[in-house]
Amino acid sequence: MTLLRSGSASDIGLVRSSNQDLVVETATLFAVADGMGGHAGGEVAARLAATSLTTAFNRHPTGAGLTEAVAEANQSVWEHSLEDPDLRGMGTTLTAIALVNEDGRDLLALVNVGDSRAYRFHDGGLVQLTTDHSLAEEMVRTGELTAAEAAVHPHRHILTRALGVSAEVTSDLWWIRPERGDRFLLCSDGLTNELDDAQVAEVLSSVADPARAADLLVHAARTHGGSDNITVVVVDVVVGEGEPEEGRAAAVVAAGGASLPAVAPSAGDKGDGEDASDSAVTSEVPSSRRERRRAKRRHRRMARGRRLVTVRTVLFAAAVAAVLAAGFYAVRWYDTNSFFVTVDHNELVIYQGRIGGFLWYHPVAVERTGVTTADVPATYLSSLRSGVEETSVAGARSYVSNLVTVEQQQNSAQGAPSSTAPPAASTTTTTKAGG
C-alpha cells in the first residue's frame, strides 16, 4: 500500500493582474494547470481542465484513465472556446500525477502537456521528469540551442502543445514506481522562470512539511521577480513499494511510442505472381488455357489499377490543397493572435506578431505606450529587450501598467518621488504565449 502526503501554494506574482494558475489536490490526483488566453480565457481554461480531469479520472482511476481524462479535459476547453467568441484561443498547460494500481502494484502515472513541469527529488538529487512542449525545448532537442541558452531565449514561452487549442491533443505519459522518501514537485513556469534547480532543491531538502515547502518555494519565486503567476504542488511518498530493484529506471517510455509491427502478406496475396490455387493446378491445364487465364487476370489487375490511381490522385490532390490552405490560415492565426512588449529607443512599444517574425509575417508596432525604461524596474529590462509575449493588446497594456506600478511602489518604499502617475486599474491580462 502506498500513502501520499501533499501541500500546495499559489500566488499572483508581482506583475500579472490575475492568477490564471489552478491546482488539483486530492488523495490520489495532483495537478497544475497554467491558463492562457487573456484575463477571462486563461482562468476559464484552467478551471475547465482541472474540473474535467478530476471528474474523468475518478470514473477510471487508472493510468489509461488518466490519459483519457486529459483528452476529455482538452475536449471540454476546446468546445467552450468554440461556443464563446470571447474565449477563442484560450488554452492551458496541464501536468498531473496520480496514484494508480496496475496489476496489483501501486504506481504513479505522470502526464504532461505544455511547459508546466514535474520533478522528482530523491536522495538529495532533483531530476526533471517532464519535457517542455515549447519552441525553445524543440530547438534544444535539434541541437540549435543549449539548455542554458533555451532558459533565456525570447521564444522560450511559445508552446508547441497545449490543452484546448485544437480538437485533439497528445499527452506524454510516464510510469514511476513510488519509493518511500520520494518527493515530487509539480509547478507552473512562474516558479522555474525565477529559481534554478539548486535553489529549488535547497528548499525541498530542508523543509519536511510539503505544504510549508510549497509556500517557501512560491515566496522565493515572488522575491526573485514574480514576473508570472506561481503555483506549486509538493507530493511526498510516506509509504512506498519498498526499495527499488537494482537497475530499475523510475520513468518508463512515453505513451503512444510503440511502433506497429510490419504486416506480412497473406497466402492469398501474391502481388503480380500467380495465386496459390492457380500454381497448384498449372501442370494439369493446357498451355493455351493457362495463358488466357493469366491474360484475363492481368487485364483485371490493370483495370483495377487504373481506377485506383485515378481516385487516389484526386483524393491526394484534394488533401494537399486542404493542408496548404489550413497551413496558411494556421500560420496567419498563429502570428496575428500574438502581441509582445519590447523596448524601442528607450520606450516600451506594443507589437503585433511573433518576436523575431514568423515565416513571411513580420511584427508590426501597434502602440507606443509613452512609458520609458526609466519608468519600470531595472530587473525587467533584459526580458523587455528580448520581448515579453502577450495574447492581446489589452494584456500588453496591463503588463506595462503593472510594471509602472511596481516601480512606483519600489520608489515609494525607498522614499523616492515617482515620475509617473498611477495607471488606471486593468481588468485584462494573459500569462505568456503558451500560458
List strands and helices in order, with pairings.
Elements: E1 3-11, E2 21-25, E3 29-36, H1 38-59, H2 63-83, E4 91-102, E5 105-113, E6 117-122, E7 125-128, H3 135-141, H4 147-151, E8 172-176, E9 183-187, H5 189-192, H6 197-206, H7 210-223, E10 230-239, H8 276-280, H9 287-336, E11 339-344, E12 347-352, E13 364-372, H10 381-386, E14 388-390, H11 393-414
Antiparallel strand pairs: 1-10, 2-3, 3-4, 4-5, 5-8, 6-7, 6-9, 9-10, 11-12, 11-14, 12-13
- Could you say which structural class the secondary elements and strand pairing correspond to? alpha+beta
User: Measured on Cα atoms, how large is the radius of gyration?
Assistant: 28 Å
**How helix-rich are the residues, as a percent range?**
25-40%
Indicate how many domains the architecture comprises: 3
- The low-confidence parts are 243-287, 305-309, 418-431
The CATH class of the largest domain: Alpha Beta
The fourth-level CATH homologous superfamily of the largest domain is: PPM-type phosphatase domain
Largest sheet: 5 strands, antiparallel
**Number of DSSP strands?**
14
Widest sheet: strand order?
1-10-9-6-7
* Mean pLDDT across every amino acid position: 80
CATH fold group of the largest domain? Phosphatase 2c, domain 1
